[in-house]
Amino acid sequence: MTDIIYTLNRTKLSKRIVARLATVPADHVAVWNMAPRKPVNSMFLVQAGWIIGFLRVLRVCTLDECTVRCFRTGKRRLVMDARRLLTIGPMRRLDPIEHDGFRGFRYFNLINYARELYDVPRIKAVAS
């Protein structure tokens, strides 16, 4: 399984979204408008050039497989048919890690990224 990373815009709305994601109940399912082709474990969020946290991914589905309801009002939302990413539970905060912003999402491996960022050498097996 792989992870993905997604950049939030630098707006007041994205700050409110992050604040709301940190306080949702454990069984809350959020719907994201993206369709990764590989199986995904978690989704990391980038805001203002920093990785701020991650969400656990429930599954990737098409719209007719899942019901989409507004978080505030509970009303069904009208959205176009497409693949969606479902995340569950609150956002888990991380100590901020520097990362360049980009549009959309990318496949991501936090361990490899941290290794490159802090220039940690790989340990090579020594044949005896």
Spell out the blueprint of helices and strands.
Elements: E1 2-8, H1 12-21, E2 29-32, E3 40-47, E4 50-62, E5 83-98, E6 105-108, H2 110-117
Major β-sheet profile: 6 strands, mixed
Residues in helices, as a percent range: 10-25%
Q: What's the CATH topology name?
A: Archaeosine Trna-guanine Transglycosylase, Chain: A, domain 4
CATH class: Mainly Beta
> How large is the radius of gyration?
17 Å
Question: Taking strands numbered 1, 2, ... along the chain, how are they ordered across the largest sheet?
Answer: 2-5-4-3-1-6
Number of domains: 1
Low-confidence stretches: none
| Termini gap | 33 Å
What shape does the CA trace take? globular
Please name the CATH architecture. Roll
The topology string of helices and strands comes to: EHEEEEEH
> Treating each run of at least 4 consecutive H or I residues as one helix, how many helices?
2
Question: Overall mean pLDDT score?
Answer: 76
How many distinct beta strands?
A: 6
Amount of beta strand = 35-45%
What oligomeric state best describes the polypeptide chains here?
A: single chain
Helix and strand content put the structural class at mainly beta
